[in-house]
C-alpha cells in the first residue's frame, strides 16, 4: 500500500468466554487456540495487503494484548511498540458479566438482552451502554491514536466488539439506529484510509 494515513481495527481473537458463549465484559480470560490462530491470520492479511504497521494500541485486557503480541510476532516485528489503555476496554456488562447468553435470555427475555447488547443507549443492570463506552473510547482515539495516523504512522487498534463499534459508529457516521445491526467478529479486520481532514477516504473489511 502507498504512503497514507492508515488505521486498522481488529477485534481480539476468540477468548475462552467467547467459546463458552458467555458475556465477558471486564473479565479477563485468555485466548483459545482458535483465538491465537485468528490473530495469526490478521498478520497474514496485513502482509498480503502490504500494510506495514508502525504502532499497535490495545485495551488493558489480556485477550487484546495476546492478540497484539501474536500479530506483531507473526509480522516478524516482535518489538513493535504496543500501547495498552483501559479506555479501549470492552463495555462493562454489569450483572450479565460471566453469564451464558442463553441463561441471560431465559432470565431477562431475549428481546431485552438483545437491546442491551446492540442498542446505543440502553445499559444492562450495573453496566455500560454503548454510549458510555464511546465516552471513554473516543477521547483516547482523538488524543492518542488519531495524531499517530495523521503523521502517517499506520496504526492498529486491537480491541473488543463494543469498543470498536463505538469507534466505527463515528468513522462510518452511523446513526444510533444503524449501529444496532453492526457486529464485528473475533479476528475481523477493518482497514481505513483517512483524508487530511481526518474523515474516511475508503474502508476495507476482511473477515476471518
Note the main attributes of this structure.
208 residues, alpha/beta, Rossmann fold, six-stranded mixed beta sheet, 6 strands, 15% strand, globular, gluconeogenesis
Describe the structure in your own words.
- The protein is of the alpha/beta class and 208 residues long.
- The chain has one domain (6-206): Rossmann fold (3-Layer(aba) Sandwich).
- Helix content is 39%, strand content 15%.
- The protein is built from seven helices and six strands; from the N terminus they run E-H-H-E-H-E-H-H-H-E-H-E-E.
- It has a six-stranded mixed sheet with strand order 3-2-4-1-5-6, sandwiched between helices.
- Strand 2, helix 3 and strand 3 form a beta-alpha-beta unit.
- Helix 4 (101-108) crosses helix 5 (110-118).
- Homodimer.
- The record marks 160 as: Transition state stabilizer.
- Keywords: Gluconeogenesis, Glycolysis, Isomerase.
- Pathway: Carbohydrate degradation; glycolysis; pyruvate from D-glyceraldehyde 3-phosphate: step 3/5.
- It catalyses: (2R)-2-phosphoglycerate = (2R)-3-phosphoglycerate.
Average pLDDT confidence is: 96
What is the helix content? 25-40%
CATH architecture: 3-Layer(aba) Sandwich
Q: State Rg.
A: 16 Å
The biggest beta sheet is recorded as: 6 strands, mixed
Q: Might you state the CATH topology name? A: Rossmann fold
Number of strands: 6
Cα distance spanning the termini? 21 Å
Amino acid at each position: 500500500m502507498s504512503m497514507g494515513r492508515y488505521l486498522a481495527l481488529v477485534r481480539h481473537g476468540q477468548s475462552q468466554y467467547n467459546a463458552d458463549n458467555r458475556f465477558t465484559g471486564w473479565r479477563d480470560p485468555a485466548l483459545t487456540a482458535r483465538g491465537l490462530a485468528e490473530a495469526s491470520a490478521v498478520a497474514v492479511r496485513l502482509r498480503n495487503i502490504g500494510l506495514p504497521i508502525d504502532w499497535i494500541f490495545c485495551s488493558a485486557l489480556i485477550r487484546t494484548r495476546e492478540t497484539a503480541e501474536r500479530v506483531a510476532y507473526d509480522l516478524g516485528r516482535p518489538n513493535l511498540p504496543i500501547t495498552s489503555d483501559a479506555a479501549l476496554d470492552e463495555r462493562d456488562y454489569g450483572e450479565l458479566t460471566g453469564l451464558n447468553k442463553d441463561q441471560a435470555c431465559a432470565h431477562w427475555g431475549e428481546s431485552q438482552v438483545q437491546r442491551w447488547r446492540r442498542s446505543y443507549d440502553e445499559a444492562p443492570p450495573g453496566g455500560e451502554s454503548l454510549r458510555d463506552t464511546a465516552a471513554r473510547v473516543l477521547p483516547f482515539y482523538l488524543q492518542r491514536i488519531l495524531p499517530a495516523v495523521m503523521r502517517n504512522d499506520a496504526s492498529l487498534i486491537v480491541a473488543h466488539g463494543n469498543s470498536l463499534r463505538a469507534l466505527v459508529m463515528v468513522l462510518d457516521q452511523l446513526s444510533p439506529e444503524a449501529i444496532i445491526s453492526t457486529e464485528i467478529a473475533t479476528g475481523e479486520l477493518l482497514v481505513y484510509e483517512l483524508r487530511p481532514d481526518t474523515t474516511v477516504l475508503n474502508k476495507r473489511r476482511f473477515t476471518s
